[in-house]
Amino acid sequence: MGQRATTPRSEAPPEPQGVIVPKLVYDFAEGNKDMKELLGGKGANLAEMTNLGLPVPPGFTISAEACRAYLATGSVPSDLADEIDHHVDVLQQKMGKKLGQADDPLLVSVRSGAAVSMPGMMETVLNVGLNDDSVNGLAHHSGNPRFAWDAYRRLIQMFGKTVLDMDGDVFEDAIEAAKEAKGTRNDLDLDADDLKRLVETFKQAVHEHTGREFPQDPRTQMDLAIEAVFGSWNSERAILYRRQERIPTDLGTAVNICSMVFGNLGMDSGTGVAFTRDPSSGQPGVYGDYLQNAQGEDVVAGIRNTVPLADLEQIDKTSYDDLMAIMAKLEGHYRDLCDIEFTVERGKLWMLQTRVGKRTAAAAFRIATSLIDEGVIDTDEALKRVKGAQLAQLMFPRFDADADTDLITKAIGASPGAASGTIVFTSAAAVEAADRGEKVILVRRETNPDDLHGMIAAQGILTSRGGKTSHAAVVARGMGKTCVCGAEELDVNVAQGTIKVNGTVIEAGETISIDGTTGEVFRGEVPVVASPVVQYFEGSLAPDQGDELVAAVHRLITHADEVRRLGVRTNADTADDAARARRFGAEGIGLCRTEHMFLGERREAVERLILADNDGDRDAALTELEPLQRGDFLELLAAMDGQPVTIRLIDPPLHEFLPSMEDLAVKVALARERGEDPGHDAALLAAVERLHEENPMLGLRGVRLGLVIPGLFAMQVRAIASAAVELKQQGKDPQPEIMIPLVGAVQELHLARDEVERVIAELGVEWDIPIGTMIELPRAAVIADQIAEAADFFSFGTNDLTQTTWGFSRDDVEGAFFSRYLEKGIFAVSPFESIDREGVGALVRTGVDRGRATKPDLKLGICGEHGGDPDSIHFFHDAGLDYVSCSPFRIPVARLEAGRASLA
């Protein structure tokens, strides 16, 4: 926006006649909490608190629409400056002071605020409006020169790093040098003269970095800060965080201009963060951190250790009582855990932000059920407030309380979990180690937004500073990472790569274990045990025998089962997997992969089948395999007695059951070199060479195998049907379903179905065994109306459908270039992890619509890995599928998300 004059204006700029100009700037009193997409979460909630009559410093919000325009064009909208002028004038009138005036100047903060919370990922600049003249006026008016010079050095430091893209270490090193010269480790021991010298040092650093002086005009400071906040939407760390949290890339950020209130005016001032309930456990009470004589960034940065919020009652009883009343009001208003930022300025409480707070997985379930019991929300709403990903976290193992351990220290459990790994001291080291497949714990004095790469790569985070509201704690909770903060006993020396504690030195590369629930830090690796939630799903722990977390999970998963429309089956190939899945709540098997039954000691029989060069040898090999398959199906159908079991006939290319061509070629060549007869190996090599395909996943596999190799499908069907007949004779209720894979033409399915029905009829089966197919080729989806004529059911194989739609070979592309595609925003998430709704999803919808146009009661399911992905489950619900199928461990997640999908 450049440098601008600050001539007062009493009216908003007129709009051209006949032209509707979108409003880009909103006073806090003009918004509400439902305007997050326009005003961002921070701006919408500041507006809500203002309208609730809470003590919010006056200010205004520049909408995310302005940011989106900036990102699209590279420049701010032409009308924005005039709108800001108007709102600055209004703010100056409210405050009775002006930006840049020499005595008691108006100062403002410039803070980001996206629609979805991204803590610490974008920019903030405090104390905008200070300059070489007004700092003296601020010192005189406040009667506290130290405060004034501290505010000025903070402005230059934040402006330099945020707006001018300077290395933050330049400023931190200067502060450390000033403290060392003073003989102190506490920044509060620096007096006004020390801070004045720091200001000169900082200004010189700005000049050296930019070639220009630090800007003295307040509107120039503001305009440049606003542009920096806009630009920070596309910073590397913000992009990485959005990708990690699956936040849309096109939202943009609002910018909040708020008149400053000061927590660093002395020991009767301070700043803090409060939660209306414990974000780690969900328990009601007084939770948060407070820091006297500090500004808000000091708390979240973790540069000084805070005191518990409860201590504020002794420090400033009036502010504490006011805060407790406001917290109760906000939780009642939002009907949820609220995360609150506040400042006390000389005994006066000011509210700077509120939002529905991030919480751990355990807290999410406890809070949801607590609010039901308190009559605040109903069970439907409670179910909406928990997520499958949170349930998955609760199923992770935890440390064995009975194990022998070497406790190093105990600090603040900031984000639950049990994590072990080797120590690394930098984010770069964490990423490098993770790329090598190593598990690491990232150890820092405190983290900052630039550490996001390392936090994602690490198993857990340990800091020696900060509390439950520090950057490390907030981001770790959001990502579900284990985190322990505020381990003050640890002397972390990043340069030397060591931790010193009670005379003991622990070096980088040593293994430690951290418990994010208890805050305990152990030397070495601690063994883990199954979580109580898994024990509950396994049936070894009754809901009323576990803690209140188990009871909460039971209540909400039970309600999910009551309201969901989607059935939940499992992908299982063995009786053991089927039994576990059934305990976890599976309602049948959606995919049994019969090829897994051909491995191990049975490989030799498969080899004989492949090597057979006449009908007799082939029939002998099939005869050898049939009773083995029959035994497998007996166990599987018995384990799922009374529930449907969808059995996919053999799918992969036959070469997968033979040794690799390279290994065989070497063995044959060595044998011949020694003058030996390679015998069987030579025959295998010839078979492998005969079966070799450049792209086997698009070759002789699936239904094509059954049509080309006589008797293969018939052998499998006899094994399935005869096992079912035997179980029926035992009084059981087997429910096999036979699925033909990789069908691309209805003629293929007709031919395969004819053979399946012939075998079933020969065995005298007296009940219907459904015969269906997988929809895993784009052509199959497009002609699903034809295929439905010969199918009793469809199961969408979204793994292959994704490969064939995108033209990807999953085994090759994920390691080759997916990371670049994620970095460049081509994917928000891998299409193999979450369904590609626009492409693959469109084919699924086409298959559903066309299949049911032919058979309205056609049963439809999905058995690809997407069946256990929470976001994909919502898509399958909307698309009209009857069930999803997933691995046993993901069944509880699928049950929960299927219930949530019904309420969406």
From TrEMBL:
Keyword Lipoprotein: no
E.C. designation(s): 2.7.9.1
Pyruvate phosphate dikinase AMP/ATP-binding domain span: 74-305, 313-364
InterPro entries membership: ATP_grasp_subdomain_1, PEP-util_enz_mobile_dom, PEP_util_AS, PEP_util_C, Phosphohistidine_dom_sf, PPDK_AMP/ATP-bd, Pyruvate_phosphate_dikinase, Pyrv/PenolPyrv_kinase-like_dom
One of the Pfam families matching this protein, by short name: PEP-utilizers
Superkingdom of the organism of origin: Bacteria
Enzyme class: transferase
Cofactor(s) the protein requires to work: Mg(2+)
Record bears the keyword Magnesium: yes
Residues the record marks as active site: 471, 863
Binding site residues for substrate: 593, 648, 776, 797-800
Residue span, PEP-utilising enzyme mobile domain: 438-519
GO molecular function terms attached to this record: ATP binding; kinase activity; metal ion binding; pyruvate, phosphate dikinase activity
SUPFAM superfamilies given in the database record: Glutathione synthetase ATP-binding domain-like, Phosphoenolpyruvate/pyruvate domain, Phosphohistidine domain
Keywords on record: ATP-binding, Kinase, Magnesium, Metal-binding, Nucleotide-binding, Pyruvate, Transferase
Domain PEP-utilising enzyme C-terminal residue range list: 552-898
Binding locations of Mg(2+): 776, 800
PANTHER family associated with the record: PHOSPHOENOLPYRUVATE DIKINASE-RELATED, PYRUVATE, PHOSPHATE DIKINASE 1, CHLOROPLASTIC
Family: Belongs to the PEP-utilizing enzyme family.
The protein's name: Pyruvate, phosphate dikinase
Organism: Kribbella capetownensis
Lineage, broadest ranks: Bacteria, Bacillati, Actinomycetota, Actinomycetes, Propionibacteriales
